[in-house]
Write a structure and sequence with these properties.
Number of helices: 12
Mean pLDDT: 93
Order of helices and strands: HEEEEHEEHHHHEEEEHHEEHHEEEEHEH
Low-confidence stretches: none
Distance between the termini: 60 Å
Structural class: alpha+beta
Number of domains: 2
Helix content: 25-40%
Shape: globular
Radius of gyration: 25 Å
Number of strands: 17
């Protein structure tokens, strides 16, 4: 790739602050199951879908082609956000942890939760039901009332990277800057069957009667079946998908949404958030999505980041060397990473939130 396409710190600063600059950065990665191109992969399961007869997220296009979601936008964000979490005991130090405050909610003497593991980030119930309550409210109020993202950036900057909705409070919304999703194209769903056989005849051992055995055997919902005491068949259950059109991961960095962030030092704030976004988006990801779905990059289809202009023009860009991490470290130092700390969970506040929610539901 030519030197003209090599990303520099100046170019990244321009992405963050030039209102006439490109609208997005985009990466499309082609992925493969570790078993090979024609292997069966398993999507996530959801509530039973009567239309498709299987618990997968399948969409049918007008030409009959089926598209399966292998990892949603929310799930991808929850996989990337812990990249910034401090290493646990016995693990090597994580240099990305220094880029963000390490904020922990302490449940008791033995248990705690990093807000980097909270599914709704700063808007999560666990943050509101803690000593952070007032700071959380004030941070969201700053954003909603004045468009100032500084307090959020000091407390939970990944909430700006992956988006957050204060659904339990003032309804403030911060759009995602990094969005990633994995889909499989032109798929067919399979089924599978299995049979569980207990190692011994428990009726013969007088654990229960032959009549009870005959009544509950084969019924997956029966108490004896659920405890593994009788034969249980599982016929026609979901068995994964076969993919013909390829598996693709699309990653988008929304530069328009980034430039909407402001504060007392707006330029530096936006550069700091962009640094975090670029780190999250370019850091190699773990392709183990779930049992039966371990994916790698396709070595025959190298992926390329593109800068996308307002006209739609796409220009390849090269994040060579450690340019992203160096930029992220520099912008974090200039902005000033917020203080890390531990904050107690407040059961009384959580109970109050539950009571308020019940009262609201009753009034509808």
């Amino acid at each position: 790739m030519s030197s003209a396409n090599t990303v520099t710190a100046d170019r990244m600063r321009d992405w963050a602050n030039n209102l006439k600059g490109p609208v997005a950065l985009h990466l499309r990665e082609r992925l493969l199951p570790v078993e090979g191109q024609d292997a069966v992969v398993f999507p996530p399961t959801y509530a039973f879908d009567d239309k498709h007869g299987i618990p997968y997220q399948l969409d049918e296009l007008s030409d009959g082609t089926k598209v399966a979601q292998l990892d949603s936008v929310g799930s991808q964000a929850n996989r990337m956000e812990p990249l910034f979490r401090a290493a646990s005991a016995g693990r090597s130090e994580n240099q990305l942890a220094a880029l963000v405050p390490q904020v922990t909610i302490v449940l008791d003497k033995e248990r705690s939760v990093s807000i980097l593991d909270a599914g709704h980030r700063l808007g999560d119930a666990i943050c509101r039901a803690s000593e952070l309550h007032e700071r959380v409210e004030n941070a969201f109020a700053d954003w909603k009332d004045r468009g100032d993202a500084t307090a959020i950036a000091k407390l939970a900057p990944t909430s700006l990277v992956f988006g957050v909705w204060d659904s339990r409070g003032a309804q403030a919304k911060v759009p995602r800057i990094v969005q990633s999703v994995i889909r499989a194209w032109d798929v067919d769903a399979l089924t599978r069957s299995a049979q569980y056989n207990p190692p011994v005849d428990y009726a013969a051992l007088d654990v229960f009667s032959d009549e009870e055995k005959a009544k509950e055997e084969g019924n997956t919902k029966s108490p004896l079946a659920q405890q593994g005491f009788v034969h249980v068949p599982a016929v026609g259950t979901h068995g994964g998908i076969v993919v013909r059109g390829g598996i693709f991961r699309d990653v988008t960095i929304n530069l328009v949404a980034l430039r909407q962030l402001d504060g007392e030092n707006g330029d530096i704030l936006r550069e700091y958030v962009l640094g975090l976004a670029l780190v999250a988006a370019t850091e190699p990801t773990d392709g183990y999505l779930r049992q039966g779905c371990l994916l790698t990059l396709d070595p025959d289809n190298p992926s390329v980041w593109n800068e996308v202009d307002r006209s739609g023009k796409r220009t390849p860009v090269d994040f060579g060397g450690d340019v992203v991490l160096s930029f992220a470290k520099g912008t974090a130092a200039r902005f000033g990473v917020g203080e890390s700390g531990s904050f107690a969970f407040r059961k009384e506040r959580a109970k109050g939130d539950v009571a308020a929610a019940k009262k609201k539901a009753k009034s509808k």
